[in-house]
Each structure stands twice: as structure tokens, then as C-alpha cells.
Amino acid sequence: MNEKWDWNDWKAQFRNRIQTVDALKNYIELNPDEEEAIKKSEGLYRWAVTPYYASLMDKTDPNCPIRLQALPAADELIVNQFSDVDPVGDMKYRVTNRIVHKYSDRIVLLVTEQCSVYCRHCTRKYHTTDVNGSYFEKQEAESFEEDFKYISEHPEIRDVLLTGGDPLTYSDSKLEHIISRLRSIPHVEIIRIGSRYPVLLPQRITKEFCEMLEKYHPVWLNTHFNHPKEITEESAKACNLLLKHGVPVQNQSVLLKGINDDLETMRELLHGLLKIRVRPYYLYHCDNVTGVSHFMTTLEKGIEILRGLVGHTTGFAIPTYVITTINGKIPISIDNIIDYSEKGLTLQSYQGKKTYIPYLKPEEVLGSQL
Ligand SMILES: *Cc1c(COP(=O)(O)O)cnc(C)c1O
Ligand code: SF4
């Protein structure tokens, strides 16, 4: 390829994101179905791929896990009758333009709607990828003052999680403004950043960025690797730089059909993460988010993978398998299943709330066409 720009400059990577079929053809051989799906999603779901992430795609295989995560698919346009744009009820817990206050001592701060790549399986697909959707109560451009004020007035909040979209889409100076304001609130003990940049655009993790974070410790970063192919020299370098500056890096994967829903792939991913010193934190059961249903696996599948790991590998290689519900995240282990019927599972949340989770039958995965 003939780039006239600096491959290692993250802003240039961002500016040169692939957003047309023609540009994509510089990287891969698109098959007619993929091309058709991209056309059909126009006006409904946005897509964009960083040149770096596109360079990881298999040239010819449409089932490549990188392609499946980044390129619109026809299945996205099929609406599952049980799906919801916000199945875990984040908007029920929204208290300001940007804050979701679901747990008493920690909050989510939705910094932006923008990302470097629009992951097809995003749990906030309505907020990030849906052309007409947003979780913001007002606008993204709205000032953060009411959010800062809310946190200041709630001394129980000791943990603030910056997410989005992807907060690292913002410049270092914009982020520093937010982080320094949070750090000036005495009861905020830890600041967490949820970002997929180490995976999708690792060049974003610069020395300057890490030095900025270091001033506001304790700062933690949770990223999102889903497949061993994503562990590259560049992504390892990004994680290493964060670690060197004292930012612990953890990983949150989503269990995705056709991408990582087999024991061998999952084991390779987890072992790969340990090799780059990234600690597996959560493995999310895929939520039934509108436009994401085709990635859902069964809970049995997740439990089967878990059984293949526990005892068979390093204890801290094993993430906590969780399902997100209206009552918070519930870890799935054989210990908290209260009732196991043909129709679904009843699990107990951390507060002892009984939560019923129906199984999806294969025929229910194919709902009506948009
Ligand atoms: C996941 C999540 C958190 C953080 O939960 P941890 O289990 O502490 O990682 C906080 N608020 C909301 C709304 C969440 O979804
Ligand atoms: S980077 Fe994160 S927030 Fe953005 S689309 Fe991907 S999963 Fe969603």
C-alpha cells in the first residue's frame, strides 16, 4: 500500500479510516454478500474501520473474526423479537446527560458517542452505531458541568468509569480536562477508562498520553480483545506502555458466535493476554441488543467453555463470565443458578434478587426484517 501519511500517527490513522467499499477493496476481496450488506446498512448503522484494524483482516475469508467484528452484516438488519436497544436498562438509571448510576458506589460517565471502529456487536449499538440513536439525554456537545456537579454532590461515588463510545477518541487535552476535574473531587478514589483503542488503533496509546494519565493515579484501563488475532506487536506495545506508566490493563471480552465461542480460541486469547500482561476481567454473555442478536450464543455454550478452563489453566487467566441484567451484572457459575428449566435460567444477583433469563430458541433469533 501506498500511504502518503504516517502509519504510526494515530490522528492520521483516524483521519484515513475506511468508510467506503472502494477503500475497503484496497485491503480485502469483498464478497457480493458483504458488499450488499454494507449498502443495505446505509442510513441505519454507521461503519468505519481504521487502516490498522483492516490490515489484520484476512484478504479472502469472509468469516475472518476481524471482518465479522468490523463490517456490517445482513443479519444486523434482522430484528429479533426479544431484542431491545437498551436491554440492560442503562437509560432507566441515567441521572444526568452522561451519567448512568446503577450501582451505589460507582458510575458510568458516557463521554462520547464516537469510536475509531464501530464494532458490530457493541452493547451500546444504539448509542454508537445507530445513525439515529443516542443514550445522551441532551447532546454530546453539552458541557460536563452538570455531570461533575452530580458526582461532587454524591459522596458515595468512589469509582468513575469513563466510557462511551470510546473516550480515547477525544484529544489528550480534552481528556485531561475531564480527568483532572474528576481527580479534584475528594471522594473519587479511582478513575477507570473503558477503551478499545489498544485493539483498534493502538497507536493512540502514546507516551504523552500515558504521562498525562500518570499524573492522576490511580487510573485503570479496561480494554476489549475478543480474538487472538488482535494480539499483535502494536497492541502489545500499547498495553506495555500503559503498564509502564502504572496503569493496570484488564480485558473485557464478549462471547460472540463464530468469533470466539469455542474453547480453543478462547484459551488462545486468554493465554495471549497473559503473555502481554493483560489480566482477563470479564467475559460478557452477549446481550440481546437490537442489531446484535446474530452474535448471541447459548448460556450452555458459555458454561461449557468455562468448564474447559477452570482447573485446566492458570487461575487468573479465567475471566468472570457475566450476564448483564437490569439488576446489574450477574456472574454465571454453577453456584448461583437457582432454577434451571427448559425455558431459561433463574440466577441470583449480588443483592440476592432473583433474575429470570429466558433461553433463546434458534428460531427466535430470526425475527422480522427491518
Ligand atoms: C459494568 C458497570 C459498572 C462497573 O461494574 P464492575 O462490576 O465494577 O466492573 C458500573 N456501572 C454500570 C452501569 C455498569 O454496567
Ligand atoms: S469501541 Fe467499544 S463502544 Fe465503540 S463500538 Fe466498539 S465496543 Fe462499542
UniProtKB/TrEMBL annotation:
Segments forming domain Radical SAM core: 101-329
Residues that bind [4Fe-4S] cluster: 115, 119, 122
Enzyme class: isomerase
InterPro entries tied to this protein: Aldolase_TIM (IPR013785), Arg_2_3_am_muta (IPR031015), LAM_C_dom (IPR025895), Lys_aminomutase/Glu_NH3_mut (IPR003739), rSAM (IPR007197), rSAM_sf (IPR058240)
SUPFAM superfamilies associated with the record: Radical SAM enzymes
EC number(s) recorded for this UniProt protein: 5.4.3.2
Modification N6-(pyridoxal phosphate)lysine, positions: 329
Source organism superkingdom: Bacteria
Entry cofactors: pyridoxal 5'-phosphate
GO MF entries: 4 iron, 4 sulfur cluster binding; L-lysine 2,3-aminomutase activity; metal ion binding
Keywords: 4Fe-4S, Iron, Iron-sulfur, Isomerase, Metal-binding, Pyridoxal phosphate, S-adenosyl-L-methionine
PANTHER family (UniProt xref): L-LYSINE 2,3-AMINOMUTASE, LYSINE 2,3-AMINOMUTASE-RELATED
UniProt-recorded name of the protein: Lysine 2,3-aminomutase
Organism this protein belongs to: Paenibacillus nuruki
Gene: kamA
